[in-house]
Amino acid sequence: MPFCPKCCAEYDEGYSVCSDCGCGLVDQLPAPPEEPTPHAMHPVLLYSTDDLNSKILTNILEQEGIPVLARSKTLAGDYVSIYSGYSVYGKKLYVDQADLSRAREILENFLAVETPEDESQEDMSSRRLRKRALTLFLIFFGIPLGSAFVIWIIGLLSRFFV
Ligand SMILES: [Zn+2]
Fold it and tell me: For residue 83, what pLDDT is reported?
């Protein structure tokens, strides 16, 4: 069967020119360019934590180029998060099987803060994460606010001396 190499239309035997494009027909269409096979993700559970932490962790992992799937722990969690933007049930984070060991490493480095002993693994990690979140919060808001406050005080004081 002749084909038009341009518009890929198929013609009956006997035709030699495409009526639409005017170009000569060929017996076989050129092979389509080799497309990279889309990377199929095999999600593996990485971590289970509350909503805030899952957002922080997702951010960190994605900055390292690791795609993260976050799922609510329960259906009820989904329901709650629709209405409040926050799920008390927390999230389960999944990463691709191929990324798992690297993701774990990043996570462990991130969570490597002192360990209270009398809590379950998940609660410990959540607490450590909360500490990190607080530190980040202080860096991003505390320092600018503190500086603004100091500048304000200096401004007030300078009125007495000018
Ligand atoms: Zn054509």
Answer: 55
CA of 18 to the centre of ligand 1 (A): 5
37 by Cβ neighbours in 10 Å (0-12 / 13-18 / 19+) ranks as exposed
| CATH hierarchy code of domain 43-130 | 3.30.70.1530
pTM listed for this prediction: 0.41
**In whole numbers, what is the pLDDT of the chain averaged over residues?**
79
CA distances from 30 to 2, 6, 19, 34 (A): 12, 10, 19, 11
Closest CA to 110 of 84, 137, 129: 129
Give the domain ranges of the chain: 1-31, 43-130
User: What radius of gyration, in Å, describes the C-alpha atoms of the chain?
Assistant: 29
Q: How far is the CA of 151 from the centre of ligand 1 (A)?
A: 73
Q: pLDDT (tens digit, 9 = 90+) per residue, 21-67? A: 898 998 887 666 665 555 567 888 888 888 778 888 889 999 999 98
Instruction: Please tell me the distance between residue 11's alpha carbon and the centre of ligand 1 in angstroms.
Output: 10
Look at residue 37 in the predicted model and tell me its pLDDT: 57
Strands 91-96 and 68-72: antiparallel
